[in-house]
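Input sequence (254 aa), recorded before submission:
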Amino acid sequence: MSSYAVILKDPAAPLAAAVPFLAGLKGQGRDPAAAFARANPGFLGRSLPLEAARALASGAAAAGFKTIIAAETDLPAPPPELAAVKIEPGDGGFHARTPGALTFIPYETVTIFSAAAWDAAYIPDTLQALKPGLFARIAALAGAGLPPPAAPVRETCFRADIIGGEVPLRVVLRPEALDFSPLGPARGPSSLENFRALLELLAAPCFQAVKNDFLPAFLAGRQLAGLKVASEEAAGLELSRLLLAPRGGAFPAP
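Predicted structure, token format:
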């Protein structure tokens, strides 16, 4: 039996827009609703029977949210990732250098431009991280116990996805992997600020692209705590949602 998703019709809907509505469903509360929104950005429901999806969409409409219903199997998969190591903006488009290739993408062909951030555990490249059982064996031989492990350090990860080209390609930008030398004198010591400057250069001429809500917030330097998704997988799910929207930024009618 097919299962269905209920999706906010506005591709640039804020991540927390529907949290109060979701919190009221079956009295689940704000924290579970916010967790669902971060893990499923832009979705009101997932893997539902058709009648349940229709009921949810009807309730959302009564609350002022326009939605579409899509079969889970119809959620489009993004094109394969091309991890960029250097982006060179130019007149009419940009060159994306990826390992082993240099590709030119005209701005007018860009259909999706999204960005996302999430928190993830940072695992340092140390002997303890590489050989987690070594110290336990040493302690056992010495007859000593190990102190409790320290809580993992978490860091914020950033990513931008640009889909464009005559044959659609997905160029993925991560600040830690990029050479920012094309920024010239505007390049600074902060990779995050350089990332912001680069995305600003690229986003302005891609005026026909569908953009998510995180991108303008990031470019404007707004607080991002409430805009982070749950994981990189959630960022990929949001990209699938955006791919449902044709050029012009509106989802097709349900």
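Checked by second reader. The longest strand covers residues 153-164.
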